[in-house]
Amino acid sequence: MFAELLQNVRTSHPLVHSITNRVTINDCANVLLACGASPIMADDPGEAADVTAGCDALTLNLGTLDQRRIPAMLAAGRRANELGHPVVLDPVGAGASPLRTETALRLLREGKPTAVRGNMSEIRALARAGGGAHGVDADRADRVTEETLDRAAEFVRQFAARAGVIASVTGPIDLVSDGVRVFCIRNGHPMMGLVTGTGCQLSVLTAAFLAANPDRPLEAAAGAVCALGLCGELAHGRLTGPEGSGTYRVYLMDAVSRLTPEQLEKGANYEVR
Amino acid sequence: MFAELLQNVRTSHPLVHSITNRVTINDCANVLLACGASPIMADDPGEAADVTAGCDALTLNLGTLDQRRIPAMLAAGRRANELGHPVVLDPVGAGASPLRTETALRLLREGKPTAVRGNMSEIRALARAGGGAHGVDADRADRVTEETLDRAAEFVRQFAARAGVIASVTGPIDLVSDGVRVFCIRNGHPMMGLVTGTGCQLSVLTAAFLAANPDRPLEAAAGAVCALGLCGELAHGRLTGPEGSGTYRVYLMDAVSRLTPEQLEKGANYEVR
Amino acid sequence: MFAELLQNVRTSHPLVHSITNRVTINDCANVLLACGASPIMADDPGEAADVTAGCDALTLNLGTLDQRRIPAMLAAGRRANELGHPVVLDPVGAGASPLRTETALRLLREGKPTAVRGNMSEIRALARAGGGAHGVDADRADRVTEETLDRAAEFVRQFAARAGVIASVTGPIDLVSDGVRVFCIRNGHPMMGLVTGTGCQLSVLTAAFLAANPDRPLEAAAGAVCALGLCGELAHGRLTGPEGSGTYRVYLMDAVSRLTPEQLEKGANYEVR
């Protein structure tokens, strides 16, 4: 199944509009090109909705939040909703400040995202509308491991059902749910945490997969998670000698640009609950 | 001829002020250092013109357009004009929204650029003040190929003549014209399209070449196109095994930093019409 | 001594809040992850102080200065001061425009930085509240060499004493002083100047070292300088064949991510005056 999802991205070349943070904006553009999609970044309120109208999907990412981008996010979200384009919300740093959490909640409410992609700390912050994130990485206590998997999967399923979204929650084990089923995904490698923005990259990949596979949003979101996680494994497998996080970041992009549908089909490591 | 153009960049170390987009700003700074120039990025209206005054050239790039940068672009452009510094306009995404197109036209009119560097879709959008760009990449219909070359070269020549600029239009075949002659350049590699910002990099390189070669602006702009295109070929020649777009991006920067005047002289692939 | 300083960063995982420029923001995040710290970038005045409150250190970097970030820098600085967090000021481009110089002086006065990290041109601009920087790199006349070392070391010592900060001034020879002692550091490699943002990376590393070593701020700041300089040497030692500035940048990040306390202890090349 996942082979076809990736193939559809590679053949349909979805154009993804991202209103996104300043830290990882370049990586997000490059990963979209690497997967076969095309990027456009436009976040001035004077053109955001116009640009969205010419695209196939929209990503709203809250990193390096700037209040002046919020009207652009809302306008672009409305236009995407009108046109039936998938919208992915990445609530980076939800919980790190009241402004960040409130903006994430507002976009969840008014942006009507198709999918929300974050780490467990961020999703918990949205669920309880509060709490504290440790930077933009997940709190250790929030990490999903084999021991906490059952409870975490049920939490993600319920969050997805209540919010009416695909919830895509990443960590040592990734959980993707539409409120009914839950994909538990064991792809990925800890070194991905040594490179900033792998989460942001996943969010734009998710938008590309959703745009190219409109009839299977849950599978598309899970496929994006498996794809980037598998690339994280392949990148780690190439590391030798003195290579560290700088080279790993390059290899990760290489892997996305060369991932074949067959590799993804074979390497995707998941179970559905 | 091109050997000398590059040598002049390497020996005169031009300082290039760029008011530019958030996606590729880091690549633009690094490519300037790689070619022997120095970068400074300053786009607050409170200092843009002051910074321009201490530089040798100016680049105005419309990617991730922010309306609050427009006064900075106009003020810096005016100062550069007063001082006789070359100005390069990169109308990223012209055609993607009315705001983007109108701003590009205003900067073309008021910024008095020495050169305009864009893809064919963007230049067409300026020429007809409308139309639709597919993201920030050229529409397929706008790609310059051997079949469409004669017509495209004449279009670019006329655009340059009417706008009173050097037009530098990049694609599978690149066209650079001062309104009289047209350089048709066949350097480059399709993989450059898998890395975001190679166009932006070319725009700042063009500014560096113009600053270092003030008496031959057409040749300088064409030399920059040949130089980056040749580096794109050299980078591709190094790719092996599992290397993909991540590694290609690194190799491209390597090639710029190591390109010799002799390599450029020998590798430049162009005809003048 | 330096072994322990780095070890403390690796074990305490300080969370560093950076209000920083758009050119090197991604490198700053990645170098923090590489050294064992965690990054968060938040510069909206509506959340900057809140985010600071949850962090261990703060970096204020003036590159691509935006006047709307100044209130965020001041508010975050005040909060960091109240909480006793180390604050590092990087006066990028001080001297390049009146706005840049005045803002740097205001942050030096009101932000009460623990350390100021810049090149000699920038520090001189702060010392004399004027003068001209050549871009964001140091003027040649300001380069610290063996010939000018005595005078430069005394200048840096006096600057530190008067400003009440750790002054960390980088160049061919680096000088770090608390107003009493001066560390003269001979680590580093000229190729670091071919990659944009190595200074910015050093500033966030300095913040991480200060946070992890609160009782020894002078040694912490000097340790960060030695660490990145040593990584610059290690990265250069790996270069072969056609590799240039693109690969060097990757190797530099690799080296930070793999630097061991023992390597730093052995490789740190300094004298104390």
**Shape summary of chain A:** globular
Question: What radius of gyration of chain A results from the CA coordinates?
Answer: 17 Å
Uncertain runs of chain A: 130-134
The average pLDDT of chain A is 95
Strand order of the largest sheet of chain A: 2-1-3-4-5-6-7-8-9
Order of helices and strands of chain A: HEHEHEHEHEHHEEEHHHHE
Number of domains of chain A: 1
> What is the CATH superfamily of chain A?
Ribokinase
Fold and architecture overview:
The structure is a homotrimer of 273-residue chains. Chain A has helices at 2-12, 25-35, 48-53, 70-83, 98-110, 120-128, 149-163, 198-212, 217-238, 245-258, 261-267, and strands spanning 15-19, 38-41, 57-61, 87-90, 115-119, 166-170, 174-177, 182-185, 270-272. Chain A is of the alpha/beta class and 273 residues long. Chain A has one domain (2-272): Ribokinase (UDP-N-acetylmuramoyl-L-alanine:D-glutamate ligase), CATH 3.40.1190. Chain A has a 9-stranded mixed beta sheet with strand order 2-1-3-4-5-6-7-8-9, with helices on both faces. In chain A, α9 packs across α10. The radius of gyration of chain A is 17 Å and the shape is globular. The interface between B and C is medium-sized, with 33 and 36 residues.
